Amino acid sequence: MEKDDNNNNNQSGKKRPLSATSSETTTKQQKQQSQVLYLEEGLFAVNKPLGWTSQDVVGKLRHILEDDAKIRGAPDPRTKKRRPWMKVGHGGTLDPLAMGVLVCGVGSGTKNLQKYLVGSKSYRAEITLGYQTSTLDADVKGEIVEEKSYDHVTSYELIEKVLPDFTGNIQQIPPVFSALKRDGKRLYELGRKGQTAEDLKIEPREVTIYDLKLIQKEDDKESTKPIQTFCIEVECGGGTYIRSLVRDIGIALGTVATMTQLERTKQGQFFLDHCLPYSSTVEEVKHDEEGRIIFDKRKDCDWTVSTINEAIRDCRENILKNNNDDDGLRSSSKE
Questions:
Q1: DSSP alpha helices (H): ranges in the chain?
Q2: Least enclosed by CB within 10 Å: which of 32, 123, 125, 182?
Q3: Does residue 165 have an active-site annotation?
Q4: pTM of the predicted model, to two decimals?
């Protein structure tokens, strides 16, 4: 009887292939993935590259994720097609000339971004003495508005002596070239028209500097030459402008100063080591006529759906899970 049953199965062509189980599993997984918009939702951090705005990063991430969603045939929940298909955001703007930690959220993760806007952040900034630009940094659009000798700044002790004046709760005048509004207009729009901080009568705001340190090179300790460039490490509350801090340190040293480099090294629980790394697919960096970096947001970057989703999982399992009682954000009542 067993032989006859086997013969009948063979003749009917119903013999089950050996790979049927794995094939059915794969098909089931693909069907499940096509029924969801987000394969992963949550927070993660990227190392924002030089030349990119924070919105460039958000746009790149959204473009990668939406392309994948379309390929998978994921549902489109939009009632208005002009709105973004997928929710992607960031937790605190970094200027194009700044690099470093940028906390991002995907899907439900965007709901947790607000606290990163007002929480503490850490930076490493390079200060160059002797001149000040209209933008207070090395932006090619900025113009040198003041030059002053720094020959008397010959020791790091002199620099260290002024730093305590800029810790704690301090009053700070924001830069003209900032996104703050005056009479419904962004300050940078007014700055481009030639208006200065004095013209606009920008009022000082209270900000919090938790820690401020001078980074001193070992081989520079014994030098008696004028010091034009040095670096500082800053931990500050939300709403602090490092460019303004650099400006004020220059004034305290009896000269003027410009911020020539900036890197965010920490935001909440996220450090540089936690960031999704950036690697350009372009072999040579190009600049336009005004000196700005040219890049193709659709091509210049090696981020993928897999690396983004892996970063979200890693954040959930290794960063947020291990720090449930401490989000790394000092309380700050000021924006």
A1: 2-12, 20-34, 54-72, 114-118, 156-162, 187-191, 197-200, 242-252, 305-314
A2: 32
A3: no
A4: 0.78
